[in-house]
Design goal:
It is built from 9 helices and 6 strands, in the order ββββαβααβαααααα. Strand 3 and strand 4 form a beta hairpin. It is α/β, with parallel strands linked by helices.
């Protein structure tokens, strides 16, 4: 495991963009905001450049990372108020169901999504971070203190920072439980030439099984059987 792995969470309001992070080994905290209280964009950029290689989140492939990516690549040079407005509109679109498709090769930093790894995106077991906080017996379970879209007062911004820290702590508990799964994916990925980082166990098993069948029967047999499956074609490509 790299010593530049951080757990992170993001909160967005019309006048607040907030990133809270916690180092996976030392527990050191970092907080970056753009709000009426300050503009930490330079500090955020330096942190990402010098101290971060991997970012761990909960459903971060769906929400947190796309929001961060938008902030870094689209809204970055806007003045503070417009910066927050742009990110808030982008965030709202995601929450309303707009899918954001980013290719992993375009990620500024590698993402580890505990939601994906643990297959919480399966309808049969879909769960929220709050439910996991309860199941993990986290004492300080908090709900979002202010409705999305609220123009925050100065004192409310600190409340949101505390809330974001709390969610980061909850994500850390899920991360600790998931470390063996993450380490397994780190071992399997180079072995099969595929980045399994955010694959659930079922999907990994399918890929490994099919790759073994390809080696035994030949790619032509497997390709003919599953010629319409793009995933199969990708496996065949990676087994050559």
């Amino acid at each position: 495991m790299t010593n530049k792995r951080w757990i992170f969470d993001i909160e967005v309001y019309p006048n607040l963009f907030l990133v809270c992070a916690k180092h996976c080994i030392t527990g050191e905290r970092r907080r970056f905001q753009v709000s009426p209280l300050g503009d930490d964009r330079n500090e955020l950029a330096l942190w990402l450049r010098d101290e971060v290689e991997e970012m761990v989140g909960f459903n971060n492939l769906f929400y947190d990372y796309p929001v961060l990516h938008h902030a870094l690549t689209v809204a970055w040079n806007l003045r503070g108020r417009d910066f927050c407005t742009s990110i808030f509109k982008f965030s709202t679109n995601i929450i309303k169901g707009k899918r954001i498709y980013l290719k992993e090769r375009d990620f500024i930093r590698k993402q580890i999504d505990l939601f994906k790894i643990n297959h919480y995106d399966n309808k049969a077991k879909m769960t929220s971070l709050k439910l996991l906080q309860f199941n993990l017996r986290l004492k300080n379970i908090k709900e979002l203190p202010y409705e999305p879209g609220t123009i925050l007062e100065d004192y409310q911004i600190q409340v949101i920072i505390d809330y974001c820290d709390n969610d980061t702590d909850a994500t850390e508990l899920v991360y600790i439980e998931t470390i063996p799964e993450i380490e397994l994916r780190e071992k399997l990925s180079p072995q099969y030439g595929i980045d399994f980082t955010n694959y659930n166990s079922t999907k990994i098993g399918e890929w490994i099984l099919i790759s073994k069948i390809i080696k035994e029967l030949g790619e032509d047999v497997v390709y003919d059987k599953f010629e319409t499956d793009r995933g199969i074609r990708k496996i065949i490509k990676n087994t050559k």
